[in-house]
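Table S5 (text form). Sequence records supplied for joint modeling of the two-component complex.
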Amino acid sequence: MKTGAKIRDKLTPYAFLSPAILSMTILSFLPIAYTIYIAFTNFSLNHFRQYQFVGLKNFIDIINGPLRTVFLPVLIWTIVFALIATLSNYIIGLFLAVLLNNKNMWETNIYRAILIIPWALPSTIAILAWQGLYNQDYGGINTLLSYFHIAKIPWLTDPFWARVGIIIASAWMGYPFMMNASLGGLQAIPPELYEVADLDGATWFQKLRLITIPMLMSSALPLIISSFAFNFNNFGSVFLITGGGPPRTDTAFAGTTDLLVSSAYKMTMQFNRYDLASALSIIIFLIVGTLSFINMKMTHAFEEVD
Amino acid sequence: MRPNERVTLWVSRIIIWAFIIVILFPVAWVVGASLGTGDAFFTGTIFPRRISFQNYIDLFQKTQLLTWIKNSLILCFGVAIIQSILTSTSSYAFSRMKFVGRKNGLMTLLILQMFPTFMSLPAIYGILAKLDLLDNLYVFMLVLAGGSAFNIWLLKGYIDGLPKELDEAALVDGASYWQIFVRIILPLTAPMLVVIFLFSFIGTYSEFILSSAVLKSPESYTVALGLQRFINNQFSAHWTLFAAASVVASLPLVIIFMALQRYLQQGLAAGAVKG
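The corresponding structure-token record, covering 581 residues in total, follows.
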């Protein structure tokens, strides 16, 4: 009887965990394991029922084989996009937060509520609306530009402008989060520091450079890293605005604006190359996983595991 | 206020107003477009000259928007409820119980969280295609409800912050773990559970990658998927109709978001990025 109660006590935690363990094993863990397995096979539409183990072939093809010329430009653009998008999110967010964090501005909360609107919209729908804004002939932006007698910009058909367009849309969607985070960080800075600086006759810019930025960095760096990881995989901004296009002349596999994640998606859905898609996913994971790992080290997430 | 403070204040205001105008322009254009007629935009005006609600009427008569909204709501509520349950029981166990594998379990969650959900797209698509389970809203609900590693960490942290004496006293009084969970922990974690419920709800409402792979027929589309197909297929020239659909589809989420902003920010401050 007593041992029975003891065993039951020992099993209780697992009973509470079982729903999560069960669902995560079936729906997260096994698919990931299967993805890793597929990456080493030739599973595709041509080999749908019977596929073989091919070792590292997919990875070699992508990194240093016939597909290198396809994916190297995609990788470079993915990194460039993630860097610019993250920095513009942060700089605009910080800039607005500094302006809003003014004790003389009684109506700050009204501005804050308005400036947060892009964040409150369902992201997929907001991004689709950007596709409309960029329409060359009747989109909102070119119509607006025509009032200033600026020629129509080929937002969706020219590789350069398509890339600029995606970055603008991502900045628009992403700055409210950074603005909010920065406002939180700014309010945590002790006001005495600014009072002392005022006594010393510091200028607005000196206070920003010597007090505000250094004090914000410790909380901002993890946010910047996770935002970089998010933008690295910002599927929606690319797929829903340009569909990865305009197309490249040298390959059908990826367009000029495709990120690694959207080209992995196309590999699965358009070309039925599950093998290549899985290998790409693993490459993406290695990059993003490394960043997340650094991030967790910095935020001491691992030390919380006690 | 000293003179230079007054100058700073007014310069700040003017810059903020300029930003507000630029940032609201896309929203205003979509709302404006939704009130116009199909032709207004080909003549090159920013906002329509005549206001008409015809697009909103057409939306409910000629498109399947209502079906898509219904599907989205079923999916979002289902996913959010399942994830809240999974999260609350397991966070309680991780926070309050000692057991073999606890440390490794928490570590595994951290690592699973690093795998983006789309990563398993080829696998999930491949398996569902083989089992002939594509295009089923309820199977899809289960697929989406699976991963909630981040939420478990979030709620575990919250429960860690609750006084241990409360449930230890109840344990001494002979309450079972289940009774403690239902009567003490759940009521105390209610604010954070609301946040987790909303995270799941908002995330699912905008989910596109997996939906577009798994849901095939227009009858089972979600709002996000339906609108994407709508704009890229038959209605590509009907921007004004699409604009009206965007307004209708966005309103519920905007209202929820604005009303619960405080709670959401508290949760988002813990390090999430809205997907």
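Note: Chain A has a mean pLDDT of 87.
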